[in-house]
Design goal:
With 218 residues, this protein is an alpha+beta fold. 41% of the residues lie in helices and 14% in strands. Strand 5, helix 4 and strand 6 form a beta-alpha-beta unit. Helix 1 runs parallel beside helix 5 and helix 2 crosses helix 4. The relative contact order is 0.16.
């Protein structure tokens, strides 16, 4: 896919994230142009992004270009560690921040939650990820998963496409909301069984595409 087409998808992602309350002034999304290059949203409020083409970012960058977010080390580190990842979404869903601050583990409490994996890992350094080593530490925390909570600093989700990465951020926010609601009821949130999680995870590409269609055409 061309830089121009990926830029269009990233602009749509910014609009979707803003409209659903998953970002405000901050947040960024990247997509893999080829094995060694990313296209990334510029450092502007995601909901107010203009037309592309957006900046190119080398996966093995020694320093960041001037027109990319200062946390772009997140994207380069994940892209370098995960050849299977085609897009990275960085956002700050309020429900994720609340669930993390309350100390809740984010596990699949509903079917779509299984598309995040068995338990969402937490990157325990609350500082902004503005150094290469910090990006690598976050990539290590993510591992082979699909989402990672950043302590006091939002979350990161990944996918094969921009749509998948954004859809997973939406699911992460919903999982956090359900977790908080269940806790308010006074009970212990009960995750889906491993077999149920596996069955739902097998539907991932289909359901993530449907969620992206819903979000991007709303």
């Amino acid at each position: 896919m061309s830089q121009e087409r990926l830029s269009e998808q990233l602009a749509t992602a910014g609009r979707v994230l803003a409209q659903t309350g998953l970002v405000t002034a901050f947040g960024h999304v990247s997509a893999r142009l080829d094995a060694g290059t990313l296209v990334i949203t510029p450092p502007r409020p995601p909901g107010r992004l203009g037309p592309g083409p957006y900046p190119l970012l080398p996966v093995r960058a020694g320093e960041l270009p001037p027109d990319v977010p200062r946390e772009a080390w997140i994207h380069t580190a994940i892209a370098a560690a995960r050849p299977d990842v085609g897009a990275v979404c960085r956002a700050q869903p309020p429900s994720v921040a609340a669930a993390s601050a309350a100390g809740f583990s984010l596990v699949p409490l509903h079917g779509q939650g299984a598309l995040l994996g068995g338990c969402v890992p937490v990157h325990k350094d609350a500082r902004l990820v503005r150094q290469p080593a910090m990006g690598r530490a976050l990539a290590d925390a993510l591992g082979d998963g699909f989402a990672c909570v950043l302590k006091g600093n939002g979350a990161v989700t990944v996918g094969a496409t921009v749509g998948e990465a954004v859809a997973r951020m939406w699911i992460l926010a919903e999982t956090s909301r359900i977790t908080l609601l269940a806790a308010c009821c006074g009970g212990i949130p009960l995750p889906l069984s491993p077999d149920e999680q596996k069955a739902w995870a097998a539907t991932g590409p289909e359901l993530l595409e449907r969620i992206w269609q819903y979000l991007s055409t709303s």
